[in-house]
Amino acid sequence: MRVLEQAAPLAYQESYDNAGLQCGNPQLEVKGVLIALDCTLAVVDEALARGCNVVVAHHPLIFKPLKRLTGANEVEQTLLKAIKHDVALYAAHTNLDNVRHGVNRKLADKLGLQNLRILDPKFGTLGKLVTYVPPTHTDAVLQALYDAGAGQVGNYSQCSFRTDGTGTYTPGADTNPFQGTPGQPETAQEQRVEVLLPLHLQGAALRALRQAHPYEEVAYELIKLENVHQDVGSGMVGELPEPLPPQEFRARLRAALGVPVVKYTEFAQPIKTVALCGGAGSFLTGKARAAGAQAYVTGDLKYHEYFAAEGQLMLCDVGHYESEQFTSEIFRDLLTSAFTRKFAVLIAETLTNPVRYDF
């Protein structure tokens, strides 16, 4: 869970979502992991048959609140079987959609896109931590904050700002000051240190700050920012190596995703800039147009939503499952790199896509 949530923090899931551990004991000893896009009854059966006691899926089995657990439908039947056989169920859904290296990055890589960026970055996920440190300890304090996840700006790490200044204080009678004498006013040379950090890491950052700082009482300011987080948000946009005629681009889509059909809107211009969103992405059509994309690839478009293209780009509906089918590769790579030879990490053979095509 720590490995998965470091890559896709639960704090980045949408408010309507239900990512994380859905059932099972967090202290369960892992014997094997089965990865699937959806957690169905057949997937749990496959996990049992293949000796896996953990199922990691993209879509949460428990999405809407359950009022009872009687086996009246497949969701309840799946949950009952998992509980009965001590199989833990874990989901990383919109939190994996919303990180730069998640679902949309995988789809973009399959299409061969370059110069990638988040299509709709999130606001309000960043904070600025300010503290005051004696110059002799600034580097140690900063390193502790970096280790806790602070100081990352895009592809740049260990980012900070410091200014020299003068601090004043009077230690109390029962204090053991780093510099000065109890009861006597003191003036000290200090550095004001500032770092950015994701707000969901503020607890870890403050613990690291207190442990590394030499003062008994650590002065700090934590300020919530309205900056966009350029590595967190919905959808992705990138560029093809060379412009393609619309028909050739659709052929590229079908080949890269292995899909039998692409539903699309008419568009005559060459395709160079491509926006995409795995799953149901109609809500980003306007963002795709604003980003200057000539094509927007997603799934689950309804009839009237195709009109939102307004002739300014080509909407391409490849299907919900089809746009997210490579998510299992993300889970596999994360787990196999972190737990080499400790337990089996298998991709489910069960096809969970409920949609079939007849030609």
TrEMBL record:
- Give the signal peptide, or none: none
User: Which PANTHER family does the entry mention?
Assistant: GTP CYCLOHYDROLASE 1 TYPE 2 HOMOLOG, NGG1 INTERACTING FACTOR 3
UniProtKB keywords: Metal-binding
Q: Which family, according to UniProt?
A: Belongs to the GTP cyclohydrolase I type 2/NIF3 family.
Lineage: superkingdom:
Bacteria
InterPro entries in the record: DUF34/NIF3, DUF34/NIF3_bac
Species of origin: Hymenobacter profundi
Q: What is this protein called?
A: GTP cyclohydrolase 1 type 2 homolog
Give the Pfam families listed for this entry: DUF34_NIF3
